[in-house]
Amino acid sequence: MRKYQLSQHFLKGPKLAGFLIGHSNIKKRDTVIDIGAGSGVITAALAKRCKQVIAVEPDYETAELLRKNVGKFENVQIVEQDFLEMQLPEGPYKVFANPPFHLSSAILHKLDEADNPPEAIYLILQKQFALKLLNNDRHYTSQLGKQLFVHYAPRIRLPMRPNYFTPPPAVPTVLLELKRRDIIK
Fold first, then answer.
1. Per DSSP, what are the bridge partners of residue 53?
2. With contact defined as beta carbons under 8 Å apart, do 21 and 28 qualify?
3. pLDDT of 1
4. What is the structure's pLDDT at 109?
5. CA 89, 53, 81 angle in degrees (round to 5)?
6. Which helix (H) or strand (E) holds 75?
7. Are residues 162 and 11 in contact, defined by beta-carbon separation less than 8 angstroms?
8. 157: part of which helix (H) or strand (E)?
9. What would the DSSP string read from start to end of 95-149?
10. CB 123 within 8 A of CB 100
11. How would you write 27-41 as a 3-class SS string?
12. pTM summary value
């Protein structure tokens, strides 16, 4: 079930998800959180590339579909809960997700302010919002962008096309990367 009113725009397929993950620093040893996992397109692609995937999906009906679609992967843990209320892992982890646009700011606040923040964050976001997270003189930097800049090196990894999604978003989107400064090599 697609919930358009919740600003959800689902990636069209696993090949696309794999392509996008290829633009990240996710490795075989990593634990990765997929926020708003939906039917599991990103979750399945992550499961093939990392040690463990924590797929977070709060909607009961969608979580059932997620279980059906990624049940064959032993390294996927499905958490049927609101990410904003979820306890984060104690060990090292990364985030790769296509969350509902209206939750982008709250998600980034939670991750940055966590006792154990992620090593890297990859989010598909509205381009206008993502530009405000970059600390440069070409664009206005939001308060959240300045807060994130203390701990993370942000950059836009990839512009996204509307036809990558169902339904296509009405606004330009990008894949944003945030790598924690204290572990950048």
1. 32, 76
2. no
3. 42
4. 97
5. 65
6. none
7. no
8. strand 152-160
9. EEE---GGGHHHHHHHHHTSSS--SEEEEEEEHHHHHTTS-SSSSPPPHHHHHHH
10. no
11. CCCCEEEEECCCCCH
12. 0.93
Please name the residues in contact with 50: beta carbons below 8 A apart, sequence gap of 6 or more: 26, 27, 28, 29, 30, 31, 32, 75
DSSP state of 71: T
Please write the tens of the pLDDT for every residue from 149-178. 999 999 999 999 999 998 999 999 999 999
Phi, psi of 126, rounded to the nearest 5 degrees: -65, 135
Q: Are strands 165-166 and 173-180 parallel, antiparallel or unpaired?
A: unpaired
- Residue spans of the chain under pLDDT 70: 1-7, 184-185
State how far the alpha carbon of 129 is from the alpha carbons of 2, 75, 139, 140, 174, in Å.
23, 32, 11, 10, 10
The residue with tokens 């794999």 is 18
Residue matched to tokens 């075989």? 28
104-112 helix and 143-151 helix, angle to the nearest 10 degrees: 30
Q: pLDDT value at position 138?
A: 79
Q: How far apart are alpha carbons 58 and 36 in whole angstroms?
A: 7
* Phi, psi angles (nearest 5°) of residue 131: -60, -35
Question: What is the spatial distance between Cα 128 and Cα 102, in angstroms, rounded to a whole number?
Answer: 13
Q: Determine the pLDDT at residue 10.
A: 85
